[in-house]
Please model this.
Amino acid sequence: MKAVVFDQLGGPEVLQLGDAPDPEVRRGKVLIKNHAVGINFADTLFRQGQYAMQPKLPDIPGLEAAGVVEAVGDGVEGIKPGDRVTSIGMKTYAEYSLASAGQVMALPDSVSFEQGAAFPIQVLTAYHMLFTSHNLTADQSVIVHSAAGGVGLAAVQIAKAAGARVIGTVSTDEKATLAKEYGADEVINYATQDFAEETLKLTEGKGVDLILDAVGKPTLEKGLSCLAPFGHLILYGRSGGVPDPLNLFGLFQKSIKVSGFILYTVSAMPEVHHKGIRQSLQLMDEGKLKLLIGKSFPLAEAAEAHRHMESRQSVGKLVLIP
Ligand SMILES: NC(=O)c1ccc[n+]([C@@H]2O[C@H](COP(=O)([O-])OP(=O)(O)OC[C@H]3O[C@@H](n4cnc5c(N)ncnc54)[C@H](OP(=O)(O)O)[C@@H]3O)[C@@H](O)[C@H]2O)c1
Model:
């Protein structure tokens, strides 16, 4: 099969279209013929050897894909060849990929393969931070950093659907317009404005109840300064660099908390995982959650897609079409 293979760590140029053996379906696994592959910021870290999982070179990036089930392994129930599905898997930058049966989700006919590929990681990450790590309620306020990105746009809409006040941060005015279109109440361009100062102004000095932070170094410390008493900052990435060590005693002053989040914790908890899938699909069905496909690239242009994401130009979801 055709796949995007890299045999050394490095910049986007290490990603090359090549040939790889077809994956063999094994017990508990589902083989999917991919129609659309989701790109995540994590893939750019994986390519550089900076992700939680290390590549085994030569390796194939990719954590999610939507398509049609080609075959199922022994022990798989409720999923059959021909089903339209989306999935969290591995090595998905390819014509075919494998996923564990528990990580395969049926795709309603109303959801396209591209939207399906935009769903598993970014939407579920946004959902579970808001409702599993935190318990967002309508009287709360939340800062969503990088609000025009994949996780960001999903988080803005899901938080709005819960009735919360949403303050987005973005690095360009174009992204600010987009985040507003998708429901953010206020948007701060954190490249030109101090987001903590602006947030305190917007909240009359009180601060916000929740901050979703995947930027890290430039935002974490400042974020703590604009949390309300008993506020909660969830650190779930580091697109702007690894944050400085946290001074735990600094948390006392306003009784605030900082927690970490990674989706794999949830995907290993079937009931919680499936609740997130059901509720997110319902929001899509009700028109409260729209997945923006910012750009699609042919599989052969994976390197270009990574350049686009790392340049901070991308909005919404980037997908590869095998
Ligand atoms: N923990 C988890 O389970 C989990 C799951 C999914 C994603 N994540 C994390 O969530 C973040 C967003 O992921 P995504 O896939 O939705 O990507 P994305 O937000 O669509 O794209 C990355 C965005 O990060 C922002 N950014 C800030 N500083 C940056 C820098 N120095 N270089 C490049 N980009 C920078 C940019 O938006 P602005 O220019 O507007 O800031 C950029 O558009 C990533 O950090 C990712 O690792 C974590």
About this structure: Residues 40-42, 121-122, 125, 146, 148-152, 170-171, 175, 214-215, 236-237, 239-240, 261-263, 309-310, 312, 314 surround NAP (CB under 6 Å). The chain is about 30% helix and 25% strand. The chain has two domains: 2-120+291-321, 138-260. The CA atoms of residues 79 and 271 lie 18 Å apart.
